[in-house]
């Protein structure tokens, strides 16, 4: 299957040595969004 | 030649396309109903010929929530099975049987609704009574889907026998997980429809246990939403990496996520019933905890997706922190549409956590916030991913190509959808928080400031709904082009590979008996005592009510 | 099967957040008693008058102690019965002074209904055969629309009332 793309012929690295800094920052932003949304709505619940 | 470029046989393609035709016919009808609803609720438009708002709402929910989704999912999943493990002539015939039974059931239910005999909404809560043909039609749809499920199980079984010791293809594994979940979940639906609703609607049973029927419905109702979501996840894990020129981030983590979905999607239905009487609050809370467990595989998925993107970009030589992000194939609609879907799942998922948060549910229960919520999760995340799949699946099946022009039209479609949904879903979320109810025709209630505010948001929903309907027309046009008119050629069926030196997936991931046993154990744990309580503390049953729905 | 170190951190923080949410709502529920409406008491939907609180003369708002009120209501398609006033006219508005503790009690005579005092935390399903109860302090003044928020038939959107909280 799938030898279609010539760009991916470089030797692959071991999974844990891949630089995933961008991923880490992205998921952290996602987490912060969830926390803000949840606590915001909890505050609204308490105020009512 | 790579298998990705090898077209299916004519007979096989015809089967998968049959499901696609029903899918897009449903989209057009259901979408039109949605448009009319938002127009009615704006207060500026009245339905002609005395058509009832709730008839439209029932059509919208049944056609889009049950028919559009189920036909697309089964058609898509069957094509994945055909591609990865193959289909025999006998299996193909059985799959056709599934298709026809589902279609007959759909037609029965649809006609019953359209003639005004089943304005009970897609949740058909007792003791509102629809015509028996509605319930029987729904049963046919479910039974048809069961046949499809067992064909899929058989396909993987046959493949495994011929490939001793090999791990099953990732996509086939995922399809089988989704269909096991669907089968276990629809048992609850079948129980309430066959044992409770059909005899009662025919007059053989005088009364019905309302709370029991609702609890059985929601036993099915929550895994239903995961049945919609998992095919999108299949595309995200195993198709999108190929489209962006990368590899599957981790085969075993993908499988683990799906196993967690199987185990935790079902024993959580009580979180739809948090504000109901007659259920012990402790058991509601236990199911809230289980609901929070089902968030975990989505957290894993979020990481895997970003990592897939970053790893692909970095291998192409982009070293800066977000350089890889800029180089994603933004101009390829097969990527763009599902990507917008992924983004929509951020507010969609966060909203879901809030909905399930026990007493906080009182903020949002049955307000139009909920409608806004599932228009993000299902109608954006899932639907845009399905559209993204359509752009390559349909031409692959019809032996045509997604031309640059159709690709561009698809990109416009995705933006139209995003804009329309941002306006509609956004205003639904806000209106819901200030108390506006869902599933209600236009009403000024007792008047006053609060209601006046709601009406402004309902106007915004009509604007969003109109934009979305333009998106639907565009999508149906693209579908027709890809089905009948696009130039002949070979469109890739983009299945991604693992890294060549990828870590081997642990064998235990394919221990089906173990995962099914845990799933059943969790269901028994979460439901036995509440169900027993509900039956033991039953009030006198409810007689049927026909007149409130205009029968 | 191994996890990337960032994924480990992400999942730890994610699971930690979920646990924190559960602790907060669990504490509020089991220590402070703020459960969602979850009352377990049944009633004959064809004969709700047999139950003391739902006798016609007991419907509507009643002060039971200083700053404590009970509101008894019966839902049916497509109406909330809040009782009658001195002139035998149906009550449509319930008036309650701010900061009073109010117990809302409601049941249905026919199909499933909703009862939400929009803009407050009073939000319950109302089902035939069951009594729904929710006690809360009305902290904020204002005119709140009561809406039936569960579909009950062609007149569903015409089913409403008003709760007025005054200083």
TrEMBL record, chain A:
TM region(s), chain numbering: 24-45
Pfam families membership: CoxIIa
InterPro entries named in the record: Cyt_c_oxidase_su2a
Keywords associated with the record: Membrane, Transmembrane, Transmembrane helix
Taxonomy, superkingdom: Bacteria
Identification of the protein by name: Membrane protein YqhA
Automatic annotation (TrEMBL), chain B:
The entry's keywords: Electron transport, Heme, Iron, Membrane, Metal-binding, Respiratory chain, Transmembrane, Transmembrane helix, Transport
Any Gene Ontology CC annotation: membrane
Location relative to the cell: Membrane
Segment forming the signal sequence: none
PROSITE patterns: COX1 (PS50855), COX1_CUB (PS00077)
Keyword Heme: yes
Coiled coil region boundaries: none
Domain (Cytochrome oxidase subunit I profile) ranges: 1-484
Claim: Membrane is one of the keywords in the record: yes
Primary location group: membrane
Record membrane topology: Multi-pass membrane protein
Residues spanning the membrane: 15-36, 56-76, 97-120, 132-151, 171-198, 218-240, 252-270, 285-312, 333-354, 374-394, 414-434, 454-480, 512-532
GO molecular-function terms, A-Z: cytochrome-c oxidase activity; heme binding
Domain of life from the UniProt record: Bacteria
One GO process term, biological-process aspect: aerobic respiration
Family: Belongs to the heme-copper respiratory oxidase family.
PANTHER family named in the record: CYTOCHROME C OXIDASE SUBUNIT 1, CYTOCHROME C OXIDASE SUBUNIT I
Protein name: Cytochrome c oxidase subunit 1
Organism encoding this protein: Sporosarcina limicola
TrEMBL record, chain C:
Residues spanning the membrane: 9-31
Keyword Transmembrane helix appears in the UniProt entry: yes
Protein name in the entry: Cytochrome aa3 subunit 2
Alphabetical UniProt keywords: Copper, Membrane, Metal-binding, Transmembrane, Transmembrane helix
GO cellular component: cell envelope; membrane
InterPro entries the record matches: Ba3_CcO_II_C (IPR034214), CcO_II-like_C (IPR002429), Copper_CuA (IPR001505), Cupredoxin (IPR008972), NosZ/Cyto_c_oxidase_sub2 (IPR051403)
Cytochrome oxidase subunit II copper A binding domain: residues covered: 17-167
Keyword Transmembrane helix annotated: yes
Main location: other
Catalytic reactions on record: 4 Fe(II)-[cytochrome c] + O2 + 8 H(+)(in) = 4 Fe(III)-[cytochrome c] + 2 H2O + 4 H(+)(out)
Subcellular location field: Cell envelope
CDD domains: ba3_CcO_II_C (cd13913)
Entry-linked PROSITE patterns: COX2, COX2_CUA
MF terms in GO: copper ion binding; cytochrome-c oxidase activity
Coiled coil regions in record: none
Organism: Sporosarcina limicola
